[in-house]
Design goal:
The protein has 8 helices and 6 strands; from the N terminus they run H-E-E-H-H-E-H-E-H-H-E-E-H-H. With 212 residues, the protein is of the alpha/beta class. The chain is globular and about 55 Å long.
Length: 212
Amino acid sequence: MQDKESIWLRIVERIRTCDLCPLHKYRRNPVPGEGSLNAEILFLGEAPGRREDEMGRPFVGAAGQLLNKLLENINMKRAEVFITNVVKCRPPNNRDPKDEEIKACSIHTDSIISLVKPRVIVTLGNHAGKYIFESLGGKKWLGVSKVRGKVYEINLRLGFKVKVIPTYHPAAALYNPQLRETLENDFRLIVKALNEVRSESRRLTLLDFIKQ
């Protein structure tokens, strides 16, 4: 059985040479994602921006600085989580990714989620939320403003169950500072969801022990 690091390097190489959608023509660097391959929490954003395209890393611009701050607020380090996007190459002029681009990139997105196998997925923005709810979860996506503020349990078609926390993309709070407090409230749900899945794991472990 191959270790996670070897599988990850293969995924990175496939993304580096990917030409499944037109976005590869515009990129300087693809942005596969980064973080702990054993992370309990995976953040799924929308698309790399200019700084991400320059550095080949996700969330390193102004939105990334806000994401780091939001993590600090809940006593979490960036290195503890995994961060990626529904498309791994920057769309021209920072436009939204198109549905067909997200679909083409889904082979990479699904590989990453399957590898990390997080317990909690935090979707940042409408495109990420729609992908997890509809493409992987078979649930209707009503838009981030309607579904945020709650923790959802979704059986992914990848073969495992996760807690999903939909919220706004940090970039939205840069344009509309009033959303900052909303994001902070939603990030507190991460701690709640993580405590729940850890508690469930402990109960299952205890049941296994009793059955022996």
